[in-house]
Amino acid sequence: MQETEYIKSRHKPPQWADRFLCWFCHDEHLEILRGDVYELYEERIEKMRKWRADFFFILDILGLCRPFAFKKRSQTPTQIAMFKNYLKITYRTFIKQKVYSFLNVSGLAIGLACCMLICFYIYDELSYDTFHSKSHRTYRVLEKFESEGVGEHSASLPFPTGPALKLDYGRQVEQVVRFFNFQSPSLALANKAADKGFNEPNLFFADSTFFEVFDFELIAGDKETALNEPNSILITRSMVKKYFEDEDPMGKVLEFQGNQNLQVTGVLEDTPTNAHFKFDFIVSFSSLKKSFGGGYPTTWYWNPCWTYIVLEENTNKEDLLTQFPDFVQKYFPDFVKDDITLELQPLEGIHLHSKLDYEITANSDIKNVYIFGLVAIIVLIIASINFINLSTARANKRAKEVGVRKSLGSAKSQLINQFIFESVLLTFVSLFVAIIIVALVLPGFNQLTEKTVSLAILLEPIFLFGLIGAGLTIGLLSGFYPAFVLSSFKTVSVLKNNHLKTSGLNFRRLLVTSQFAISIMLIIGTLIVLSQLNFLQNKDAGFDDKNIVMVPVIQSPMGNHYENFKTAALQSPHIKSMTAVEEIVGAKFQVGNYTFEGMDKSKPFPRFNVRHDFVETMNIPLAAGRAYDEAIQTDDSLALIVNETLVKSMGWESAEAAVGKRFNFRGELKGQIVGVVEDYNFASKHHPIAPLVITLNTHPGAFNLFIKYVAVKIEGKQMQAAISDLENAWVSVLPERPFDFFFLDDTLNDSYKSEQKLSSVTLIFSVLAILVACLGLFGLATFSVEQRTKEIGVRKVLGINTSQILMLLSREFMLLIGIAFVIAIPLSYYLVNEWLNGFAFRVNIAFWPFILAGLVTFLISIATIAYHAMKASAINPVETLKYE
């Protein structure tokens, strides 16, 4: 296409892009390249909308930004000399105004360092599970089992669900993999040859399709066959060292739960830190048949398997979801299928968006990512405001310099280039200092946030270009004022010392007000987060979690030895009582279907299997009736204990009225309610208290699935002695099994790890934000004193004292901080209230955090300005006025 043709084209692409091409492209290539991009534009405009053709036109132009196409721009000696002159003036200005330069660089460097660290955290959080090649079409299948808002929203499914999905929807489901771990906190493994045994918390059974769904690295063994055979186990690199030291583990045997030998068929690389669950061992799923009598459980009621599916390419998940109701009706039992809903959860969304029952591990929260992102923006804004404020404030001192340079022939464009060059260079110096700060504090930051981020992440394009863009943006914004305003001053007026209007004053006031409003909001938010965390950790949960030792016992022979173990342990004067429970009290629960008197059909209720002395050990008050009694042998089959919320949900008049009410379990009349306990938080305080059924299960076989822990109340003042006595009692009944334990209150506190991390990070960065704001205030106060030196000298001659100088200097700043406080109160109240609404149990927003935030800001500001007042009061009026 000829030049005249593409210029006269009836369709006009973006002209700025065309001008950009003409600017950078060498004349030798311009004609051909310009013709090509216009020809492509004409072809696209016939096939697509104009905005899309314009977009691709711009991409084509940018794609031509290659070395061969650039104009050869030789630097003349004059240009080189000018550049050296710019550097020399920048250096002299930096040295001459040391205080301003230091405050500018340090304040912006701290802000940039904070922003980088938080961005590292956010980048890592958003990267979870994205390293799998099929992650974009991999989903976890969920089960919602609820009736009238009561039940469970489970991350796991019944055993047969995965294979049935593959069988029924083979054209849409490419592959399925299941994970199972007996819902146990740990499982026992031993290398008998080396006499090493441990309780392992990260052992899972997985289908042989494990590597067809996930891209975890196998460094020894064959992915195709590693999990095909029963009694096969994959072990991670770190576990090889733990069990086999320097030996080759391939073909070696590990004993599982003391009764099943597993052969090592592969070595896995340690689980990536950005996977939503961590494993140390993967056992072939077919190995489970030994535990279930030669086959897999066929029930569609029990749901212990985490099930993942990969959809076929170009399969719409919504199409599959519409078929799930028929799937539920086909397979699930009649008494639950009307209460069951299956859902699909994207693999990449699990870590930040999933707060379900029976999660493999506790997940993070997308709200925290938003809050951290907001904190990063806030700190960067405060630092940028400082930088711009100080840059514009000190620029007024250079008016005479501008006048002299203009009188010697400097063009306006040269002055503009000089000021912008200085500002951008100072910004990149700050950026360099910020990277040094990040390198120094990154190990501590990783420890605080439980991350393993390295400084090499800065080489990622998103960070590399982001930092360059941030440096240029801040540098240009702070350089525009001195560049365009000062270069416009009239030379004669400047050199005659005529009064020049202090431009930009109102703009600086606006920036200072915004800065302190943001700082006050950050302080208020931090105080509320700390208050909520303290509330969650210390609010009375309705039971006593102190000095409770939890001993994992699932899939152990403890069922046959429990009474002997209990008797031996209670002989210790340091052990007060003992019970056994299905889940961690205050953290988890299971669900069972019950029909109580007055109900037409059964519905799911949260359920908790226990042994005798549960109420006494956990110190849960009874509202009516009695606890389970060892003297009444029918309690484990004909009696139930419920909580007060269940009584209210059934519409019964009182707890006393609930005692004696009949119940059915799975359609069979089983017995009656014998006791009602006061409400307690049987799940975390993120959730409201729901109806609860506490059922006694004394069957020895319950320790295989339904009883997972022994809970022991010990003497708080003699913990070590109590633990030692408890271990001796364990060894007396199970000498071949490793003894393991943890404290209940420590585990419950881990339920609020997300809030702990949030409060720690916001507290640290809030302090840094205030520090940066004070650096800016210090610089502006310094500027104010310098501008008013002669005024202060005159006032000192007239008898002004230090306190009056303080009032003189602080009046305007205190007014701005007052305005900032008024702005910050409603905004911060709204934001923290929205965050608190996500908790079932929350603090009421008190007024003291608002007052404290304002008071802290006020006192720090006064202290900053007081320094300058003291310095100004020491000035000799003779020195400031002798040339007047």
Quick rundown:
The chain has 884 residues and is α+β, with helices and mostly antiparallel strands. Helix content is 49%, strand content 16%.
Backbone structural class: alpha+beta
Radius of gyration: 36 Å
Tally of DSSP β-strands: 24
Q: What is the oligomeric state here?
A: single chain
Major β-sheet profile: 13 strands, mixed
Average pLDDT for all residues:
85
What is the general shape? globular
Strand content: 15-25%
Uncertain parts: 1-8
Helix proportion of residues, in percent?
A: 40-55%
End-to-end gap: 75 Å
Q: What's the total helix number?
A: 30
Description:
There is one protein chain. By secondary structure, the protein is α+β, with helices and mostly antiparallel strands. The chain contains 30 helices and 24 strands. Strands 1, 2, 3, 4, 5, 6, 7, 8, 9, 10, 11, 12 and 13 form a 13-stranded mixed beta sheet that branches. A 6-stranded mixed barrel has the order 16-17-22-19-21-20. Strand 20 and strand 21 form a beta hairpin. Helix 6 packs antiparallel against helix 13. The longest helix has 38 residues, at 412-449. It is globular, with a radius of gyration of 36 Å.
Q: Key features?
A:
884 residues; 13-stranded mixed beta sheet; six-stranded mixed β-barrel; 24 strands; 49% helix
